[in-house]
Write a structure and sequence with these properties.
The complex is a heterodimer of chains A (153) and B (677). With 153 residues, chain A is mainly β. Chain A has three helices and 13 strands. Chain A has helices at 59-62, 136-139, 142-152; strands at 4-12, 15-20, 24-29, 43-49, 52-58, 75-81, 84-90, 92-100, 104-105, 110-111, 114-115, 119-124, 130-134. Chain B has five domains: 4-142, Up-down Bundle (Four Helix Bundle (Hemerythrin (Met), subunit A)), CATH 1.20.120; 153-263 and 270-291, 2-Layer Sandwich (Alpha-Beta Plaits), CATH 3.30.70.1110; 303-357; 360-541, Histidine kinase-like ATPase, C-terminal domain (Heat Shock Protein 90), CATH 3.30.565; 546-675, OB fold (Dihydrolipoamide Acetyltransferase, E2P). In chain B, helix 3 (58-75) runs antiparallel to helix 4 and helix 3 (58-75) packs parallel to helix 5. The chains are: A mainly beta (153), B alpha+beta (677).
C-alpha cells in the first residue's frame, strides 16, 4: 500500500479529473467575471473572492477542448500552487475521494486529446471510470501561455 | 533562552542607535564644544555595547567598548574632539553598521576590528597626536588620577551647579541580597531606574566594573534628581533581590568635604572652563527629565499585519458601499440612519488604517547628512545640507522605494550642481554650497524638492550632448522650451559631466530616477537658472493603497481612471475629430492633442464610439503631454482600493490593477501613462 491521497474529483467534457485536496483552497459557484483585455481566450478574467482579485481560467479552453456556456453545475475551483492563485472553471465538482498513490499509473501517450505533460497519472476509480490526475505546475506554466499568445498573433 | 526571539528586536534597536550615533556625531562636528551631545552619544554607544554583549556579538561589543572609552574621556573634558577623532569614530560606525547588516543577513556579525580598535586605543592613550601631528597640547594628564570614592573637580562642579539650580544630590549605597544570582543584571536594573529619575554622576565601582560583576555586595552612586528621597528608595528596593538602598542627601558643605581628598587643581583656569559644560549638562538634564514624561508610547508591528488589516478594511469598505446601495433601495429610516452612522465610523477607521501605514520621510532623509558629508569630502567641496519637512508622512510602500532616487538626485546636485570652491568664490557666492532638501504636503500629493545654489543647468550644453547622443535632432532642439531641454537629463544614456567620476555621471541614474518615480505614480520636474542653481521636484501620491478615481463605462464594462492624471472631462462631436497623418486628433484649448479609443485598445465587446455622434472624453495628462480618451459614460468619482491583478496576469497592457466596486464586481484600473506615447 502506498500513501493515501485525498483528491477532489471534477468533471470536464465527460472525463473525471482529480486535484489533491491540499492544492485546492475553495470551490465556488459561478460568479460574475470581469474580462481582462488582451489575454489568451481561455483566461476568462478576474473574480472577487472575498476581497481578493483572482484570475479565472476556463480549463476546457486551456486544454483545447470545445468551450461551452456555464451551467447550473459549473464550479470555480480555486487552486494555489507555488505563489499563484488561480480559479479553474469546470463542468462540475462532485466528490472528495481517497485513492492509494500506488494506484496512479503513469499516463499513456495520448489521453483524450490532452497532452500528457498536463497529467500526473491515471488512477482507476471503479470498473468503468478512470480518474485523470492533473499536474498543476504544468497547467499553470506561463511560458507556454506566452507561446500560445505568439501563436495567436 | 532562545536568542532568536530577541534578534529582530536587537536589530531594530541597533539600527536606531547607529542612526542616532551618526546624527549626533554630525551635530557634534558642527558644535564640538557641546558636551551635552557627547552625553547622548555616550549613552547610545553604551546601550549598544550592553545589547551586543547580551546577544553574544563579541566584536560589536568590543568595538563599542573602545568607542565608549574615547567618548568617556571627551565627556569628562579630558580629551578634545578633533578631525582625527571624528574620522575614527565615523569609521567605527561604518564598521558597526556593516556588522549589524551582517547579522541581519543571518551572519555572525564578526569582523576584523583590530585596526579600528587600535586607532581608538591610540586616541585614548593620547599617542595618535604624534601621528596626526595635531598642534593642541595633550590634556590627558588626568588619566593617572587614583580612582576612589572621591569625585574629580569636574564632577564636583556639576554637583554644585545642580544644587544651585535647585536639584537634589543623593549619595546612594545599594546592597544586593546575599543569595542574588544575577548581580550585574540587578545592578543594571537599578541604574536603569536611576537614569530614568535623574542623572548618575559617579558610581563606585565604575559602571563597567559593575556590569562585569566586579563588586561584592554593594555599590554606591551620586545621583542628581528632582524626585523625593522616599520615593526613590522604595523604587530601588522594589527591584528584586535588592536588599537595601541607603540614601544621603548632600548639601554644599558635605560636597566640599568630599572634594577635599581630590588632587589640587591642575591649573588656575580649570574652574572657569568647567563651569560652562556643567551648565550645559544641567540644561540637558532638566530638558531630559521633562520630555521623559511626554514621549509617546510606541510598539513595533510587523508590516504584514498592517497589510492584512488594510485588506480586511477594504473588504469592509466594499460591504459598506453595498449596504448604502441596499439601504437606498429599501428606504427605511432606521436602516438608513444605521448605515449612515456606519459610514462615518468606517470613514474614521479608514483614516486611522491609512495613517498606520504612514511613515515620516525622516526615516529616508536621516541617512543623507552623513552621505553628503562623505561625498563633499571626497569631492573636496563644501556643502551644507538643509532638511525641512522631515516630519512629512508618506505611505510605507512609497518610503521603501523613494530612497534610491533621492540618493541619485542628491549626488547629482553635489557632483554636477555645486561648483568647486574656487569657482564659487569667483562667482561671488559663499564658499560652501547649500543643498535644500524639502518635503511638504499639497492636496493628495507629497512634494520632495532638492534645491542647490550651484551653477544651474546650461541649456546649450545639455542640448549639444543630447543631439550628439542622438536623443533629439538639432531641429527638434530649437523648438524646445527650457524645461523640455532640462528634462532631457532624464533621458536614458545621457550624461553632461565632462569628467566622469564614481559619484555620478555614468550616464545611468537620472533616467532610473524617472522610471522609478513614474512607477510609484509620481512625476519629476526641473527648474533651473544658469549661475543661480537648480531645483529638482518630485511629486508623489500620498498612498498607493487607496486612490481617488473616476469610474467610467464602456458598454457593459466598468473601468476606473486615477483622478491624479485626469485634467478634465468634456464632450466632443464626431466632426471635431481630425485625421492627421493617420492618427486621430482634436483641438483642445488651442492645442492639438491625440484622441485615444479606449474601446479599441481594450477590445471592448459591446461598445464602439464610432456609432455615436457625440462622445464623452476624459482629458488625461502625463508630464506635459495631453491626450483625450473616449469613453461611453461617466459613472462618477469614488475612492477605490487598489488590488493587484495577481502574478498570473501581470503585464496586461494599459491595466495597472483592479479594484472591487460596491456591487462586489471587479473593475480594472486603467494606467493613463500607457495611453500616452
Amino acid at each position: 500500500m502506498g500513501e493515501e491521497l485525498k483528491v477532489i474529483v471534477f468533471a470536464l467534457a465527460n472525463e473525471h479529473y482529480g486535484i489533491e485536496v491540499d492544492k485546492v483552497r475553495t470551490i465556488e459557484r459561478m460568479m460574475p467575471i470581469t474580462r481582462v483585455p488582451k489575454t489568451p481566450a481561455f483566461i476568462k478574467g478576474v473574480i472577487n473572492l472575498r476581497g481578493v482579485v483572482i484570475p479565472v481560467i476556463d480549463l476546457r479552453g486551456r486544454f483545447g477542448l470545445e468551450q461551452t456556456e456555464a451551467t447550473e453545475n459549473s464550479r470555480i475551483i480555486i487552486v494555489a500552487s507555488n505563489d499563484l492563485e488561480v480559479g479553474f472553471i469546470v463542468d462540475s465538482a462532485n466528490d472528495v475521494i481517497d485513492i492509494d498513490s500506488d494506484a496512479i499509473d503513469t499516463p499513456p501517450e495520448v489521453v483524450g486529446g490532452i497532452r500528457a505533460k498536463y497529467l500526473r497519472g491515471v488512477a482507476k476509480l471503479d470498473e468503468q471510470r478512470l480518474l485523470i490526475m492533473l499536474n498543476l505546475v504544468e497547467v499553470l506554466n506561463k511560458d507556454e501561455i506566452i507561446q500560445l499568445e505568439q501563436l495567436e498573433e | 533562552m532562545d536568542m532568536n526571539a530577541y534578534l529582530s528586536m536587537f536589530i531594530d534597536e541597533s539600527n536606531d542607535h547607529l542612526q542616532s550615533l551618526n546624527e549626533n556625531l554630525l551635530r557634534l562636528e558642527s558644535a564640538p564644544e557641546d558636551l551635552s551631545i557627547v552625553q547622548v552619544i555616550f549613552r547610545s554607544a553604551h546601550t549598544l555595547k550592553g545589547m551586543s554583549a547580551t546577544m553574544g556579538f563579541e566584536d560589536l561589543a568590543s568595538l563599542t567598548h573602545e568607542m565608549e572609552n574615547v567618548l568617556d574621556l571627551v565627556r569628562n573634558n579630558k580629551l578634545k574632539m578633533d578631525g582625527f577623532i571624528f574620522d575614527t569614530l565615523f569609521k567605527s560606525l561604518d564598521v558597526l553598521d556593516s556588522m549589524v547588516q551582517d547579522i541581519v543577513g543571518g551572519g555572525t556579525g564578526k569582523a576584523d576590528v583590530s585596526n579600528i580598535v587600535a586607532s581608538l586605543k591610540a586616541i585614548v592613550s593620547g599617542e595618535y597626536r604624534t601621528d596626526a601631528a595635531a598642534g593642541a597640547p595633550a590634556k590627558t594628564g588626568m588619566d593617572g588620577e587614583p580612582r576612589g570614592i572621591e569625585l574629580d573637580q569636574f564632577q564636583i562642579s556639576v554637583l554644585q551647579q545642580s544644587m544651585e539650580t535647585g536639584h537634589q544630590v543623593f549619595h546612594i549605597i545599594v546592597k544586593v541580597r546575599e543569595d542574588c544570582v544575577l548581580k550585574a543584571a540587578r545592578a543594571y536594573m537599578v541604574f536603569e531606574l536611576l537614569e530614568r529619575s535623574g542623572e548618575v554622576v559617579k558610581s563606585e565601582p565604575s559602571v563597567q566594573e559593575i556590569e562585569q560583576e566586579k563588586f561584592d555586595r554593594s555599590f554606591s552612586v551620586y545621583l542628581i534628581t528632582h524626585k523625593p528621597m522616599e520615593e526613590l528608595k522604595t523604587q530601588i528596593e522594589n527591584v528584586s533581590e535588592i536588599e537595601s538602598a541607603q540614601m544621603t542627601l548632600l548639601d554644599e558643605e558635605s560636597l566640599s568635604l568630599l572634594s577635599q581628598p581630590s588632587k589640587p587643581q591642575p591649573a588656575a583656569d580649570r574652574p572657569a572652563e568647567d563651569k560652562r559644560p556643567a551648565a550645559d549638562e544641567n540644561k540637558l538634564r532638566t530638558s531630559g527629565a521633562q520630555s521623559g514624561g511626554a514621549v509617546t508610547k510606541t510598539i513595533r508591528v510587523d508590516i504584514e499585519r498592517l497589510d492584512v488589516l488594510m485588506n480586511l478594511f477594504s473588504e469592509l469598505l466594499i460591504d459598506r458601499v453595498r449596504l448604502e446601495q441596499l439601504a437606498g433601495e429599501i428606504r427605511r429610516s432606521d436602516l438608513t440612519e444605521t448605515v449612515e452612522h456606519m459610514a462615518r465610523v468606517s470613514g474614521d477607521l479608514q483614516n486611522i488604517v491609512l495613517k498606520l501605514r504612514m511613515v515620516p520621510v525622516e526615516s529616508v532623509f536621516n541617512r543623507f547628512p552623513r552621505m553628503i558629508r562623505d561625498l563633499a569630502k571626497t569631492l573636496d567641496k563644501k556643502v551644507d545640507l538643509v532638511i525641512t519637512g522631515a516630519e512629512t508622512e508618506l505611505d510605507r510602500t512609497v518610503i521603501d522605494e523613494i530612497g534610491d532616487p533621492l540618493v541619485h538626485l542628491l549626488r547629482n546636485s553635489i557632483d554636477h550642481g555645486i561648483e568647486a570652491t574656487e569657482k564659487r568664490l569667483q562667482a561671488g557666492k559663499p564658499e560652501s554650497g547649500t543643498v535644500n532638501l524639502r518635503a511638504f504636503h499639497s492636496g493628495n500629493n507629497v512634494f520632495i524638492e532638492i534645491e542647490d545654489d550651484g551653477g544651474g543647468i546650461n541649456r546649450e550644453r545639455v542640448l549639444a550632448t543630447a543631439i550628439k547622443n542622438g536623443v533629439v535632432t538639432a531641429d527638434q532642439g530649437k523648438s524646445m522650451s527650457d524645461e523640455e531641454v532640462y528634462m532631457l537629463l532624464f533621458a536614458p544614456g545621457f550624461s553632461t559631466a565632462e569628467k566622469i567620476s564614481d559619484i555620478s555621471g555614468r550616464g545611468v541614474g537620472l533616467d532610473v530616477v524617472q522610471t522609478k518615480i513614474n512607477s510609484l505614480g509620481g512625476a519629476v520636474g526641473i527648474q533651473s537658472e544658469l549661475g543661480k542653481g537648480t531645483v529638482f521636484s518630485i511629486q508623489l501620491p500620498l498612498t498607493l493603497s487607496i486612490i481617488s478615481a473616476m469610474l467610467i463605462k464602456l458598454g457593459s464594462e466598468k473601468f476606473a481612471i486615477p483622478l491624479s492624471s485626469i485634467m478634465e472631462t468634456s464632450i466632443i462631436r464626431r466632426e471635431q475629430i481630425h485625421h492627421i497623418h493617420g492618427s486621430q486628433m482634436i483641438e483642445f484649448r488651442g492645442a492639438i492633442i491625440p484622441i485615444v479609443s479606449l474601446s479599441r485598445l481594450l477590445a471592448s465587446p459591446d461598445f464602439d464610439e464610432s456609432q455615436e455622434t457625440e462622445t464623452e472624453v476624459v482629458i488625461i495628462r502625463k508630464g506635459d503631454k495631453w491626450a483625450a480618451v473616449m469613453v461611453d459614460e461617466f459613472i462618477g468619482q469614488s475612492d477605490i482600493v487598489l488590488k493587484p491583478l495577481g502574478n498570473y496576469l501581470n503585464g496586461s497592457p494599459a491595466v495597472s490593477g483592479a479594484t472591487i466596486l460596491g456591487d462586489g464586481q471587479v473593475a480594472l484600473i486603467i494606467d493613463p501613462n500607457a495611453l500616452i506615447k
